[in-house]
Design brief:
Blueprint: H1 25-37, H2 44-60, H3 78-92, H4 103-131, H5 139-158, H6 166-182, H7 188-193, H8 203-210, H9 225-235, H10 245-256, H11 261-277, H12 280-284, H13 288-297, H14 305-323, H15 338-350, H16 356-373, H17 381-392, H18 401-416, H19 425-440, H20 448-468, H21 472-476, H22 480-483, H23 487-500
Family: Belongs to the TTI2 family.
Protein name: TELO2-interacting protein 2
InterPro entries: ARM-type_fold (IPR016024), Tti2 (IPR018870)
Amino acid sequence: MEPHGSRESPPREGSSFPGRWPSSALGQAFSHILHQFAGQESRRGKARNAALRDLSALLEAKECDQLFEGSDTSLRGMPEMLGQVAKALEKYAAPPEGPEGGSDRHSEVAEKAAAVGLLFLKLLRKVETAKNSLVCPAWKAGLRHLAGPVYIFAVTHNLEQPWTSPKSQGVAGQVLALLLQVTECGSVAGFLHGENEDEKGRFTAVMGLLKPDLNKDSWKNNPATKHVFSWTLQKVTRPWLSQHLERVLPPSLLISDDYQTENKILGVHCLHHVVLNVPAADLLQYNRAQVLYHALFNHLYTREHHLIQAVLLCLLDLFPILEKALHWKGDAARPTTHCDEVLQLILMQMEPEHRLLLRRTYARNLPAFVKRLGILTVRHLKRLERVIIGYLEVYDGPEEEARLKILEALKLLMQYTWPRVPCRLVVLLKALLKLICDVATDSSLTPESVKSALLEEATDCLILLDHCSQGQVKGLLAKIPQSCEDNKVGNYIRRVQQVSEGAPYNAT
């Protein structure tokens, strides 16, 4: 497999590197292995297989116990050389570049990863032995150079991906566990940001290794890079992430800006993690929050429900940060916010939408937007009314998620905008009564628990509507229980009347 040209390559003959390498027989053996990995194109496959065998034999040799002694001048530079060997091994086991590589190539990668993982286990055990020895002071330097490439290898093959197999995942898991043990870290998060405030952590080193593969020209060369970056980013939380903002924000935006939906969603998840774990002051600096907002807003024009869900959740957490920069003077109208802009677009798309998955996604997030805007939702009342009534009329499948969330949004809307509710009394009352009749007489496969939840929510909305209209609902419903042929419908209407007559009520 070809090494990725964007990453640092092992030293080649005639380069400036060999002068740094140790002059001992052990050093020359490792140098020979590096040259085998960097051999000519036609010889790479066989040379690399030979290099793996040579390295395995070398690590088992007794002379290899001297790796971290550091007292012999001929062994100086050994930690750096081990780091180069680890990088070469990690690249060797990386998945194939680009879209090529079907199941055959993937199985080949899994086999390589299992073989490389066993070599990393031997290397780490050498480090652990040296760590427990009093005559091997160079183990820290060796571990510093090994930790980054070993970590990237372990994460690449530890997660379930097309290029992994149960065997390669198991070996990679062992490598990661041993790496944490040798570095005395209780978790991957501790490994990355440090176990305490005085410890630096290795996130900077890992990002330094990933950086060449995270620019716009190279990030798709290795399909594992985006997953390693995303998984690693999720492990670094507040307060450590803010100091790495300049390292993680550009690749997150880059991945989210791709044309493939899978990559867009992955990038949005990375951006959401940044929003949640970086202080608002840092995001507002240099207009970063606005950049995030516009990158996310553009995704709202897509028709992929998974992407829309990820974007809306991220935006809801970004709004409080954006609004910190807004200043309202009490003698003027409140300025429109980014939340207003997003809700306006969502409602415009909700109204004609006919695809159930998208309707559910929009409806699922509508209550959060109403709650976020509060009384300012009145700016969107006309369109909200049309959307709510339209969604209440349409059956949404056995779970009825869309209609349940629309009823929740309606309750919130009436609580926040109650002075405007009486003029909409008749329209809302008709829609709620029609819903109760439809659900009560529904003979479909909808579970009884879902029907009951719908009827309860609709009844709560009627009770709240009566409170907002100062008892007008009670008068309009007065004659229905006597003339209603369906007992279930009549029971719910009587319940509304009883609560309206003074019984305690708590819709929230």
